[in-house]
Write a structure and sequence with these properties.
The protein is α+β, with helices and mostly antiparallel strands. Helices cover 50% and strands 13% of the residues. β5 and β6 form a beta hairpin. α1 crosses α2 and α3 packs across α6. 43% of the residues are buried. The structure holds zinc ion. Zinc ion binds next to loops. The site of zinc ion has 10 residues, from loops.
Length: 206
Amino acid sequence: MAEERRMPNVMLRNLLEAIAEVLGENGLKAVLNAAGLRQFIDNYPPNNVELGATFADYGAAEQAVEDVVGPKGAKMMLTRIGRATFRYALEEQPAVLGLAGVALKALPMNTRMKIVLASLAKAATKDVNQPTDIEEHDDHFLFVVSECPCRWRGKKDKPVCFVTVGVLHGALRWATGKNFKIKEVSCIAMGDDACRYRIDKEPLEE
Ligand SMILES: [Zn+2]
């Protein structure tokens, strides 16, 4: 097992709030039981940015959603949970997203995408203990996350970070009003050096 690594309390809090929204209060209870995280039943981590939560607990909660929902529905549920996680983070601690005071009005879409991705990457690196970079290519961006709770979820043969995919969907939708194709193309849980998310620049048809 990888050594302990910490993240802001509000990160785990927002994930649990999002799980409760998508799966219901009883669904969250089942997830917390399956994850070995009973201490959080009716007792979310506090709404602050102190490094009191662990990557291991965050990963355990994600894994437990997959275990409770089953492999078929897990991808969709985790992506929905990621979108909701973004919304709770924006409401409770926009600073952990780097989006406090970001002004996007009247900017072209590509610039909005770049600003929001760069803001998320900067905040992840600085405030979330999760070193992150972005790369711009002709028709897509890569969002490159060098440390991730998935390291604590055991070895996988497919990418598993659908919560992050959902967070990116939520952030880009917030910034542009559009939906984009987003795919995790490498994953630390598979033994890769980083979790990389490929984001098409062209929005999906509505
Ligand atoms: Zn991953």
